[in-house]
Every structure is written in structure tokens, then in C-alpha cells.
Amino acid sequence: METIVVPLSRRIRSSAVLSGLVGIRTMSEVDFINKHASGTLRKGRANGMLYRAMYLHERSAHEFGYAFECIPSSRISTGPVQIEGDCHPLTELGWHAERMIARSVFSQDQFKVMYIIVDDSDGKRREGAGIVVAKTSAEWVPKNHVVFAIVTQCVNHVYQPAVNPC
């Protein structure tokens, strides 16, 4: 799975009410780093450090919510979430997903509730249920990358308390 990037609709792009959000969504990488990034990211970029992964992490968190990440699609597997009995963390995941969908001002954005398995760059594996951005108008998302948030981690077959991804 990868997050598919589609053009921002003309109606939203020209909306005076949404101009602030559109400005952030369409902001260049350099402008985003200069205006919204952490000091670590700004200094790292200025000093010639490799900063791309940190930029994508901070941009995802800023755009979609603090729990969201953007990683290469080769490091993530997704599938349907299996509901078994009354599970409070999965119920909360449903609430968070419904709220994200209802409150999204960008009509092109599509969110899916998925089971997510991530192989981190440090060799560790994380898994749980969360929200995947299946489609977005955020042009800064690179090809072959996925934007996602694990809302409730699954540890030893037990879902942990859910986090609010926004």
C-alpha cells in the first residue's frame, strides 16, 4: 500500500476560508522547514545533515496529527482490523477515524482503518490498529511512501490504550 497523491481541487485551492490550510498544505519543503519545523530540523538542514526522514515525520504530524508518520511503503504492511468482542481501544480507534473523516476539509483525503505492521529503520517491529491516509492532495508526500498512525499498538496479542492521533 502507498498513499496516493492527487491534485488539490480548484474549489478548495481558491477558497478564501481555507486559504490558511491550503497555504500550509501547498507550502514548499524549504518554507515549511523555515516556518514550522523544529529547531533540530532547521539546524540539521542548515548544517548539511541528512534530514529527509525527519522532515517527513514532522510534516506528517503537522498536517494530519501528531501520531502520523510517513515512511517508505516497503517498510509497512497493512490489512483489515479484526474485531473480537468488546475492545475499548478499537472502539476509540473507530471514534478517531470517524472524527478525522467528518472534519477533513480536503475532499480528496481518504482515510482507512487498517491493521498496520511497521519494520522500523532500527530493526524493531511495531504493529497495531490505526489510520492510513489512502489518498491525499498533500503533494509533499513522496511516491512509494505511506502516511499512517498506529492508534492502538498490539503487544502480545493485546491492544494497548488508544492515542488520539490528532
Provide structural commentary.
The chain has one domain. The chain is α+β, with helices and mostly antiparallel strands and 166 residues long. The chain contains six helices and seven strands, in the order βαααααββαββββ. The longest helix has 16 residues, at 88-103. The two termini are 22 Å apart. A hairpin with a 2-residue loop joins strand 6 and strand 7.
Helix content: 25-40%
- Which consecutive residue ranges, at least 5 long each, have pLDDT under 50? none
Radius of gyration, whole Å: 16 Å
N- to C-terminal distance = 22 Å
Q: Total domains, how many? A: 1
What structural category characterises the helix and strand content? Answer: alpha+beta
| Helix and strand run | EHHHHHEEHEEEE
Number of helices: 6
Mean pLDDT: 95
Q: How large is the share of residues in beta strands?
A: 25-35%
Main beta sheet strand tally, sense and closure: 7 strands, mixed
| Shape summary | globular
Number of beta-strand segments: 7
